[in-house]
Amino acid sequence: xxxxxxxxxxxxxxxxxxxxxxxxxxxxxxxxxxxxxxxxxxxxxxxxxxxxxxxxxxxxxxxxxxxxxxxxxxxxxxxxxxxxxxxxxxxxxxxxxxxxxxxxxxxxxxxxxxxxxxxxxxxxxxxxxxxxxxxxxxxxxxxxxxxxxxxxxxxxxxxxxxxxxxxxxxxxxxxxxxxxxxxxxxxxxxxxxxxxxxxxxxxxxxxxxxxxxxxxxxxxxxxxxxxxxxxxxxxxxxxxxxxxxxxxxxxxxxxxxxxxxxxxxxxxxxxxxxxxxxxxxxxxxxxxxxxxxxxxxxxxxxxxxxxxxxxxxxxxxxxxxxxxxxxxxxxxxxxxxxxxxxxxxxxxxx
Length: 350
Ligand SMILES: NC(=O)c1ccc[n+]([C@@H]2O[C@H](COP(=O)([O-])OP(=O)(O)OC[C@H]3O[C@@H](n4cnc5c(N)ncnc54)[C@H](O)[C@@H]3O)[C@@H](O)[C@H]2O)c1
Description:
With 350 residues, the protein is α/β, with parallel strands linked by helices. The chain is 35% helix and 17% strand. The chain contains 11 helices and 12 strands. The protein has helices at 13-23, 65-68, 83-88, 90-110, 144-159, 186-197, 215-227, 250-260, 284-289, 299-312, 327-336; strands at 2-6, 28-33, 54-57, 73-76, 115-121, 165-171, 173-175, 199-202, 209-214, 236-241, 247-249, 265-268. It has a 7-stranded parallel sheet, sandwiched between helices. It has a 3-stranded mixed sheet with strand order 7-9-11. Strand 1 (2-6), helix 1 (13-23) and strand 2 form a beta-alpha-beta unit. Helix 6 runs parallel beside helix 8, helix 6 (186-197) packs across helix 10 (299-312) and helix 8 packs across helix 10 (299-312). The protein is globular, with a radius of gyration of 19 Å. The mean pLDDT is 96. The structure holds nicotinamide-adenine-dinucleotide.
């Protein structure tokens, strides 16, 4: 089996590689990434890409046929992957997350790839008052990032066939330690703040709901999708990925971190504009279909894992929101330093 993983050099990718290497020891794992964050390693004991058999550096907007040829499954992680980056680079986000993703899927189908796994996001629910959202409920995307994910989901659902199975995994917000840790995710930010400045600064009034999932459990879900048969769930499936117990309000996440790291002050921004992005999500479908691959890590374990990981890195930067583990900061720096052009292409390549 040959598996192509796009966007493998990000936050989630290293855990996906490790998981697929463990569960499919004889598979050929191929990485394809532009390398925006390749230099942002966080305490890795070796380069995560040593788990690949082949690593390509390239732009998803121009994937050559030979990269996709003879591949059985594609795990498509590559994206401009959060709301702030989507807002700063709106058109590029649509290009990469939507147009190039669909073009890759079309190419894959034409070249005989059997399965396409797409990393979508629960942020497609946007502002969702009331009960937890199911897959078929109306969507309410508030950002360019969320819109790009919905557009791609729609096109993928019409591409699915008995010989080309598509699975759109609507992931909860990620958290947890990685060889390329991000500090622009709510729980990771709280743990970093607690360690570096003994303060957790909540940017909203703390009431928005967020479902969370540990990156290790994202990798388990991807492993499930890579093996999914079209007879179980159909030729095109869109599914929420997470667990009912992980629907939390932001203030509860802060309280859990404060409990694990004593002496921490939680600051709620009472003057904040209401954060409209608030959604609870229903995971019945995933729970039923993905037995054996369901999330295992709970909130307490995730906090401890982050705390220990950051301590191993000797992390103590109170100004981390302006540092390289925040993706928008890194992308902007690469541009300001003349490495990336306005379309986020590398300038030093022909
Ligand atoms: N982290 C989360 O909370 C979360 C939640 C839901 C869904 N997702 C989705 O999961 C996927 C992986 O997320 P992540 O947190 O690892 O993101 P990330 O930003 O850490 O990594 C994305 C990777 O894609 C690569 N990439 C971006 N544009 C590219 C291009 N034009 N060509 C080639 N490579 C390119 C980057 O270099 C990077 O290595 C993304 O699709 C994201 O939208 C993430």
